[in-house]
Amino acid sequence: MQKLNFDADWRFHLGDPQGAMWRAPDESTWRLLDLPHDWSIELDRSPEAPSSASGGFFRTGRGWYRKAFEAPEAWAGKQVMLEFEGIYMNAEIRLNGNVLTRHPYGYTSFHLDLTSHLRLGERNVLQVVVDNDTQMNSRWYSGSGIYRHVWLRVAEPLHVAPWGVYVTTPEIAADRATINVETTLSNHSTDAAYATVRSHVATPGGAIIASAESAAVVAAGLFEMVSQQIVVEDPALWSPESPTLYELRTELIVEDEIIDTALTPFGIRSLHFDASKGFLLNGEPTLLYGGCVHHDNGVMGAASYDRSEERKVELLKANGYNAIRCAHNPPAPAFLDACDRLGMLVIDEAFDCWREGKMPYDYHIAFADWWQRDLDSMVLRDRNHPSVIMWSIGNEIGERNGSSDGVAWAHRLADRVRELDPTRPITSGVNGLGMGADPHWPDTDAIFGALDVGGYNYQERRYRPDHELHPERVIYGSESTAGEAFDHWMSVLELPHVIGDFVWTSLDYLGESGIGRVHFDETLKGFLGDYPWHQANCGDLDLCGFKRPQSYYRDILWERGNPLYIAVHDPVPEDKEPKPTYWGWPEVWHNWTWPGHEGKTFKVDVYAACDEVELRLNGEPIDRQPAGCGSRFIASFEVPYTPGKLTAVGITDGREVASQALETVGAPVGLRLTPDRATIATHPGDLSFVTVEVIDDQGRVHPTADPTVYFTVVGAGTLAAVGNGNPVSEERYRGNVRRAYRGSCLAVVQTNGAPGTITLRAQADGLATTEVTVQVVA
Predict the structure, then answer these.
(1) Domain 564-663 belongs to what topology?
(2) Is 83 labeled as catalytic in the residue annotation?
(3) Cys-Cys crosslink for 661: which of 181, 271, 401, 647, Cβ 3.0 to 4.6 Å?
(4) pLDDT (tens digit, 9 = 90+) per residue, 458-488?
(5) 479 is an active site residue
(6) 287-512: what CATH class?
């Protein structure tokens, strides 16, 4: 089957063209663009936006996409299909004026058959109307449009069905592994078809090491599944530390001619979950160092470029994570591909609601009619990914207490997943039913009865008593906050039946505005922040992927990186007390540059794995405080501000074992540009993320500098996005201007498809102009 990228050369119109529902619209003034595309990220935010604080005050609306293409005569007798990886939301697709399908859910992939309405040898027009106008329909930033890839598939009438290859590894020993392969064939002809299915296993280097061959008969107009077993000698096992991928090469043969092929990457690995032994990956005890991740790509919005998806995984791997919970919907295929390649464990999640909605117009409206199609989409699309270790059928479902036939629905969903893939456990993120002691928590037991592994959202206090009541239950913290990180992780280390913890959240995201803000109210006025808050502000890493203080604290909990980190509290008015929200973190900086605050006393926290911390200012000891586990890895000090060097020294068993220093920096003089990749590919949408830092004459980042930076790009690329970690900025993410925030911002350059050089120039008033080049190679 040919799989052709169908992203290029779409026409787009925001809003409904006049009269377009009854006639072909005039496209002459429509914008020409390539997918993926999120129109919401391109627009100004507004306090009046119907998406409100939940949606980050971004504008949504309706959008029209049209693509003209030639259907060659060579397609005569073929099956021609489209695959949409994701459209947000309520999509209606037409070909040459004929309605093909409607698809309400914004996060699942789907196929549709074009064959009967194609005009061979002529111009064809594909039209997609996207309706994200009915607000509110999401608890977070959704984006708007055809925000993931589109693929055109061309096949013979007899072919391997899309998502029709299923690979499992049921038996693994040190010297051999048994590979089960199920291949579903689809016959769109009017006659029965006789064929041979040949399957090869290839090593990462491309060598074929094992094969199987089976005969098949497929009745006209029906499907047929062919089962095979293949033995691989001396298998290399997939794990986060060694993510070895094999490839299954499927050939469909009729009368000695290969009429279809399919390539399926897979990994050989085993999963076992046990309340006494924990989670065993390939027989080895494995803790889940986890983080929840929303679908957006930060400054890129919802637009799902392969490199954006890959970078998310790279950032999390670099910061100690080995597991991701996809919140609260199936992710982009490129995201899971990156998890496979780089070695990241994944909980793949289907829904944020069932029949009981959380927003007036969210998925609960479509759930009863669409749940099986959307659940099937997730499992069939993603079941060959070795990174996926659990299927989640929902998050904080309203029916978790059994209301609205919730128990029956839980079993219905779980059983359907097991039909499609019995090799992975079923889970769900379950939160409390009330506040405090929550006497109604036992009402969730019936829902847990449908699950194989229990996801506990913010319920660390239940880990021990629930084990007494349900000793067979395997538990993980499906959501926790940074402020509770110590308690949650200590429970993971102490309790075998608790296999990991997933912070809400590892990467910051758009929408749920200000959920992690610091406020000065006597009583918190609202769950979310008012405009211009538009970022959640609760990520260990900020919207650009830069580390925040809580990420350094987690490094110490997880025993990685420097065992010391100095965090200086923001000065506040004397009559005010800063209060982080439940998802928040104190307003602290890695900063000892406070002009105008000389003599003012600052609170300084030192996150430390050492027994004690001694704090020194300009070489003179100030104080010594206990640290380590007994002090929750935090030592606190009161320090009068004097410019110079603030040094924290870690002491264990009476010896100095670590140190970290903060220095007062000089005036900003220039900008430093650092691309995450100095060479990118010509393939459409490849990106380089360029960190922009304001520096003094010694090359030190100025932590309080916030100049407005102007960007220009020349050469073989364009400026795709600009951004920073400021959760209340009102600047656009698409444009060429961005103000630095705490000394840095981000610019993203994108290839235009041709080899050459991209030059990014950054300018700011009073600072030296700086350039960096990125090579684009074929």
Answers:
(1) Immunoglobulin-like (2.60.40)
(2) no
(3) 647
(4) 999 999 999 999 999 999 999 999 999 999 9
(5) yes
(6) alpha beta
